[in-house]
Design a protein that fits this description.
homodimer; 405 residues; alpha/beta; Arc Repressor Mutant, subunit A; Nucleotidyltransferase, domain 5; 3 domains; 5-stranded mixed beta sheet; 15 strands; 42% helix; elongated; DNA-binding
Chain lengths: 405, 405
DNA sequence: GCATCTTTGTAAAGTTTGTTTATAATCTAG
DNA sequence: CTAGATTATAAACAAACTTTACAAAGATGC
């Protein structure tokens, strides 16, 4: 399929100007990858001739994308003039819309975070319009903190906890957000903020985050399994997200459980798998076992949340360990299913519940028993920051193609 | 991500020659798509200027890729000189290595079949070396039939019923081929035939076939489920095959069955799902029901194969209908799992058992009961020819990028 | 300390490719 | 049979790349 040279999307004619465009892009990539360097370095790394590099860099510089750093160290001749990608030429913003709060981040064109902002939603702030204005407030707050003009924010990616049509920019269904349905979030944010926007599913964003700078860095085929209140997966194949035909790929909360009759999938109810190994399911398992052990009235124990139950297991509590193990058995089964159909290289466990290290080790141990080569399993590196980093990453991708225009 | 213009794979410099290369490729694509046409037509469809089209076409013609057809009808002025892609400039070959036989096909550069060939393997012909020489024999036979020089066969794609490392060209494990393991088939075929070769899994080839000219034509996200002796799936996402990290994506024969405890996956045994709804499993279900009905001794009934049992069901036989329905229930469950994780637009049922229309309708009916939007389900259009058509398609893709070099 | 070499960067000339404009060839229409 | 339309090539010009030549500025060696 690949020709090794060009890969034109359709049947577009190529003119001399496209050569320059392609070479500018190549040079910009090299400049970003190889840090501060001289034009001579770019000549060597690009394979282009020196005059071409000179003239192309001049063109990029005119756009404000190149910073000059003055003279560098001589290596036996005329000292180089060092240049560098100007990462402050613009900024990108990320927002993670959760069931209870909004978290935001602002980063420069290198993806380096420059500001954070977050807020709890008031009870009457969870409707789409209010969320948009809260988000806009956060955007301005971050700009003010850092003394950045709002016009320098070139792109925004917002993550929502629900089925999201990325192409149309619509959140189709988000049960945790006062049951948002068919919310044209991209258009609303675009209008509110004036900034070009992408909307994505939050779990998918977390997967992208782990790919770019987390537990799955450089792994082309992996699955991010998010276990928190809900259970879902971000599916990353051949270097990019897989959304499916109706944007609902990875809805593994509705998977069946081994040994139990499959129930029909009903989108408006909690899924079969999620009910058992979601946060609430784990807490229910815990209460049942407490009851059986006659400890139901120990309020302190009964009120533990899932991650704390796993902490107890880690400390040696046998009842908690039982809960953890039964969770791991079911999780391992779901992962075995994913592994059979996708054959990913890696599974990353994330979310408040899933990122517990003991759960990961136990699940891994169970999977090693099978004789098919199971995927590696590891916990999230980025934790709750994964979504924001993934959002920044998507915004950077979106912006990159427009920098030279 | 897409810039709308170029999409260079890495950081390769662009020179003027690349312009010509890209434009030649564009023109060749247009020529292939728009059938016989004039240079003036190409000027209009490509957006390039007339002199450029003239000179580029001259270059392509010098490579033997263009046929001149003489004058066409005038439309009020000088009559056009019609040209056409020369599909007989070269040929591509396809081979489907089955457990009992080898089927082959030869096609021109339009993908139009020009010859077929097949043979049953003798008992001592199933080892890799023998298969290669039988395949070579078939290749020469097809060339002789059609009076085509073997040197005009530019590419070969061979499908094998097992886990295949396409990049390395190695059949890792094929239980139906006298347990081939780690067979470097691509290198062997390359050496035997002298032709550039791709090796692929046969189910994956069938999926490609259905995508290019079958039940999934133009559908970017679909899954081909092959039910025959074994049960497997070809996974087609975002317009191309998904192989997974270890080339074993789609091994759904090992999926669990609802209500039954999951057993550990053991690659060298038949999978849990496959044992029940593979050909042999269906025949066992049939025999059990015959026995219960006291009909075990009806030799004629007892010897029926799975597709014939389904034919009986179609004709109204109640016992056979029970078998079909219980198969459909389990198949629908597996498809529901696939739909949840992949969210494909379409499922294509193929293989000797799976392509039975009644099974498809019954499975579809069961899936409509769920309230998540299930994929469309249809049977294979190409039947047993799907693998060969898919192989031709892959060979054409491989050849296209080299035609202009 | 100074000539020589190395390294960096630009200027000038030449090549490839593409476009626009002009021209030739050949048919339809009135 | 002329006027206009359509197709195709030739000539002139423009953009982008390369090679070659050259200038600037420091390191190296005797």
């Amino acid at each position: 399929m690949a020709t090794g040279t060009f890969n034109p999307p359709e049947t577009q004619p190529s003119r001399p100007a496209h050569l320059r465009f392609a070479n500018c892009r190549t040079l910009l990539q090299l400049l970003r990858a190889h840090g501060p360097c001289s034009k001579a370095d770019l000549v060597r790394s690009s394979g282009l001739s020196a005059p071409t590099v000179s003239s192309a860099i001049a063109q990029i510089e005119a756009l404000g994308l190149v910073e000059t750093l003055g003279e560098g160290e001589s290596s036996g001749g005329r000292p180089p003039e060092l240049i560098q990608f100007n990462a402050t030429h613009g900024y990108v913003a990320a927002a993670d819309i959760g069931g209870t709060r909004l978290r935001m981040m602002l980063a420069d064109l290198n993806g380096t975070p420059v500001a954070h902002w977050s807020t709890q939603f008031a009870a009457d702030q969870k409707d789409p319009t209010s969320v948009c204005s809260v988000l806009d407030e956060g955007l301005h707050a971050m700009c003010q903190q850092t003394n950045i003009a709002i016009s320098k924010v070139l792109h925004l990616t917002a993550g929502a906890p629900g089925i999201t049509d990325v192409r149309a920019g619509i959140v189709r269904f988000a049960p945790n957000l006062t049951a948002w349905t068919e919310v044209p979030l991209r258009a609303m944010l675009r209008k509110q903020t004036g900034i070009e926007t992408i909307v994505e599913n939050d779990t998918n964003l977390a997967a992208v985050g782990e790919y770019r700078q987390g537990a799955a860095e450089g792994v082309e085929d992996f699955i991010f399994v998010a276990m928190g209140t809900g259970v879902g997966a971000g599916i990353f194949l051949r270097g990019s997200l897989h959304h499916g035909a109706r944007w609902s790929a990875g809805e593994i909360g509705y998977l069946g459980i081994p040994g139990v009759a499959r129930e029909p999938v009903e989108m408006h109810k909690t899924g079969q798998l999620e009910r058992v190994i979601g946060g609430a399911g784990i807490e229910r398992q815990w209460l049942e076992r407490l009851e059986r052990a006659g400890l139901r009235n120990e309020a302190e124990l009964a009120e533990l949340r899932a991650p704390q139950i796993f902490d107890l297991a880690q400390e040696g509590d046998l009842l908690a360990l039982e809960v953890l193990q039964s969770t791991a058995v079911i999780l391992a089964d779901a992962i075995a299913t994913l592994a059979l159909v996708f054959n990913p290289e890696l599974i990353v466990l994330g979310g408040g519940v899933g990122s517990h290290d003991r759960l990961c080790r136990e699940t891994d141990r169970l999977l090693r028993n099978a004789d098919f080569a199971p995927p590696r399993i590891r916990t999230s590196f980025l934790g709750t920051q994964a979504q924001l980093h993934g959002a920044i990453s998507l915004s950077l991708s979106a912006v990159e193609s427009k920098l030279l225009c």
